[in-house]
Amino acid sequence: MSVPHTRSFTETDVQRLRRGGSLHFNHYGRPPLPFACVGAQGIEMDVADLTAEGRGRVLRLIDTSGGYGSACLGAGHHVVRHALRRAVDECGYVTDELGSQERAALLDRLFGPAGIWSHRFPAQDYHVSGRNSGSEGMEMALRLVLESRFDARRLRHRPGRERRDTILAFQGAWHGWTHGLVPLLNRRHYRVGLPAADSAQEFGIQVEHIPFGDPDSLATFFSARADRLLAVVVEPIQGDAGILLPPPGYLRDLSRRCADHGVLLVADEVLTFGKSGDFFAMADEDGPVPTDITVIGKYLGMGVLSTSMVIARRGLTVRGSGTVATSDLRPVTCAVIHDGLDHLVRGRLVEDSGALGDHLADLVDTGLVRRFPEVFSERRGVGVLHGVELTSRAAARLGELRTELIRAGVYVEFMAGAGKRSGGLRYVHPTMRIAPPLVTTRAQLDEIVDRIATGTRTFQSAG
């Protein structure tokens, strides 16, 4: 199979791209990939090879990452282009201190009497705020949780909430890098060396972790600690842990326990939003699973804006001006969200992604996991969010595998994996995430798996 190539860059172009790469802060603690995107359209992108042997050659790749899971319509979509132009020309730039016609139109479309999410979040029960990113949305959710036990007028605990000093999170979870969220991660690498939460201080807090998706661990924790529990923070499908799905009934049981014990339930749907065959993954065969706070992001910005939305029960709020943000549902952001979501609804792209995901699952199981058992151990996922876990041997050569996949014409991302977990649960190795945009066709899925197989074959033969 040949991978289509376009023009080559000059040596001057290559040197500029290399300098830019060295100037950009390296977040990963390892050498960056020697490739740079120089253009994109739909689910394809042109990538310059910056290696010595590549000499600036440009490869055309299929992007299975969907822009870090954010570009549900791919690149250069006409709906997004029109929304941006309309927003700049017509919508103004007011912050949340003034009402906005564009903001009102968006919120009414989502939560009003005939809103697409009104059955899940009725307007009389919920209110909404916008943030710059998923991490900022989760920070605001955490702030709402902490202030729920605080009397801002008297500057002391609310009566009966004095002992609520514990937040429950899950092993392997990922909620963001920011300082307030790091204690929610049970990954020592990210926490050691930073100030820890301290329940011994007035208004202090502690975080406990249990295995995700284990009903017995959940029941045991609530039996022993429910009277101290303030909130539970959960991903309905764990993303960075390796696309881990809970067993049927687990999320509803969690929601019921929280409601019975006066515990707030926070759903982190930053990654899962729009990818599970529904807009929200906090659901089961009986319908939506109730939450007190839901944070959505990634797909929300249609691949061109970094944004998130915090949907919280109206009783949850903060002291005056406590969470004012320049980015709170600005008109330009609202226009892109409104037009993008309207296109998803009219085209049934989210609903149809369920069948698309079934096709992808069959392709991955037969074309990758069964075909390359020395490289891939298991596929997990639903809709357009799938993970293919590496074997321990392949995980040790992850960099080589990524390079071979790119040279085979496909770009994929790898999640860290949940690693070692308690309760006798097995080690979860790094996992290849396949999360293509909602506009991907079945034929393109076939091509994606073919290209991954080609790169894997080359990787395997080199080992």
TrEMBL record:
Pfam families: Aminotran_3 (PF00202). One of its GO terms (molecular function) is identical protein binding. Gene3D superfamilies: Aspartate Aminotransferase, domain 1 (3.90.1150.10), Type I PLP-dependent aspartate aminotransferase-like (Major domain) (3.40.640.10). Keywords: Aminotransferase, Pyridoxal phosphate, Transferase. It comes from the Bacteria. Its cofactor is pyridoxal 5'-phosphate. Belongs to the class-III pyridoxal-phosphate-dependent aminotransferase family. This is Acetylornithine aminotransferase. The gene is argD.
